[in-house]
Design goal:
The chain is built from 23 helices and 21 strands. With 746 residues, the protein is of the alpha/beta class. It is globular. The relative contact order is 0.10. One of its GO terms (molecular function) is DNA binding.
Amino acid sequence: MGNGGAAFAGAAHARMHTDARIRRHVRASEFRGWNGPSGRRTHAARVALPRGRMSAGPARGLRMKFSASSSDTSASETATDSSGPLLIEATGLSKSYDGERVQLDNVSFQIARGAKVGVVGQNGCGKSTLLRILAGTESPDAGSFWTRKGTAVAIVGQEEQFDPSLTISELLFRANTESVRALREYETIARKLERAAQSSAIDDPSAEHADEMARLTTQLERCTVKMDALNAWDLEAFARQVLSRLGIVDMERKVGSLSGGERKRIALAAALIERPELLILDEPTNHLDIDRITWLEEYLQNPALSVVVVTHDRQFLDSVCTSIYELDYGSLYTHPGSYEAFLENKDARMDAQEKLAQDARVRLRKELEWMRRQPKARQAKSKSRIENFYNLQKQEAAGARGRADLQLSVQVSRMGTMVLNMEDVCLSFGQKKILDHFSYEFQKGDRVGVVGRSGIGKSAFLRVLAQLQKPDSGVVTIGETIKFGYYEQGGIEIPDEKDQRVIEWVTEVMQRAGNADMSAIQLLERFQFDKAQWYTFIDRLSGGEKRRLQLMKVLAEKPNFLVLDEPSNDLDLQTLETLEDFLSEFDGVLVVVSHDRIFMDRLTNHIFVFQGDGVVRDFTGTFTDYLLLVREEEKLQNKLSFGAGLGAGQGAQRVAAEEKSGSKQAKTAQKTVKTKLSYNERREYGKIQGEIDKLQETHARVNEQLLEPSLRYTELAELSEELARVEALIDAKTERWMELAELAGD
């Protein structure tokens, strides 16, 4: 074992020497099972409010007033989610960064304890701005903002900036609460004692070193007493569960060495460990795999926790949120209920706006004629009619923009018969196998989804497909007419984005792509960039707007083989749905990695499941079909395990009958049934039994190691995770062996 999780390892070592009672925390079940949050509240530091003038507010609360440079704000109704005591109240909030595009225009809302609010709206409309105002990290231009005194608030932003010199451990336990301070002190002393113990055993047996060991042990005993008094062991156990669920192991890694996805998971873990009353999340599902998203959904359903979340993941919205706040051109609309209810309400509102706009258009023509006939020196009695003219203009514009949709319709290069063939491809990253003799022949019209846990190698596989990375061995044959379009998860790199305007960059993209079918302005209009944005510097665009530029660049090159790595990240829901419509009509080859379950179901009918150690399971059907199959397999495995315990009696006969029924149910999820083994399947069938035998030997060895009483925390965590991984592989390979045996007629 390396230095991974040294904080918890040190704690375990010292704890075994100081207080036997704490041994209750090292059960393997704590690493393999999770029943959701305990619901226990901790006293976290109150969020720092934005600067402003203080005025009297509700009892035990603080109200902040902000002055506007202009008093021309329209009244709006207060959006309320009041399922419990009020935590936050905002009245008349307004915000604009440049005086032209308005993010918030006289917005009012309330958030109560236990509320679950999803915030939606177009890219650049002000969703992230609203979250930052809620968290107190940004001030509005006008309006008042009240938060209940003592309310603990935590925010996880879309892009987190951390001190690169910090370790993960230091970052995770940075909250300034009494329990966290006690835990931080305990872990620091435990690490010192761990290092001292290792040093004395190796090269420093001196009396001075023994005194140092005794001093550290005494300090640790004091920390143990303090942890007992604060009941901080519960916090420590909760922290370990969160870290395990989010796949955070090496606590001593420097933050500067982490990838963007790892930083996002660390930020999420840090926020959860604080146990806030109000949790604010900006695109939390980005960089999470499906299992972790499902766990997060379950965690956020804690009725004591208030949640405000911006996300493009529609299933996440439906699972977590009980109301939707929609930001639309500075106004805020509230929609109680699910995401589906929001869509129905919005459609009705847009119909009403369109009717108003049609009426306004008729009256506008009449008023325009009147305005033109008026002399330059208008009389005072005409002022009300002039004001009416401008109001009609606003109504007409609101109706026009309400139905404005992104239009994706680009040409696709011709595709020949030969597409792409992968034969016996191997790919590794360090000691980690990504592909192990993988073979597949792509055909025109293939729509493949790629799934698997974070860090398993999905992006590397896409890079091999797009000819951006070479495999370690094997043959990849590309058809002469194939033209790749690769959408990278990390976004596009624009070195001079601070000095380059949007229209300049788009013009260069069109010229490089040799696309003479439309002008840069036509492309910008098609991708819903209004005229005010054409000459904006790129660095001033929102994350979602930059993603639209990236999508524009990929499609402008007329690809016929699209390779998309998390294309839904940071896109607003309207853009996402338009992209789905476009891709559903795309007649080339589509290979996509996405954590968005609805997106995957609508666009793919074939799944590559990356299971680890180079194993890729090939499944024909949608992602939901695959999940149903996995559930049936798990039920079958549980019944088999139960039957093994019963022996050869009546119970075993019952399990055998249920196994037959369960197998039939599982097979209904598989859409395509083959009638014979291919060459590669015969090779696979010849070696799969040996692989299962080796995995069972590993399973037995890990089980024996878990019984060792002297295990450290990190060793226990790693072994528990290894056991779960091996069990999953045994299940998968056993099921695969059964499939191949049936096809072979054995």
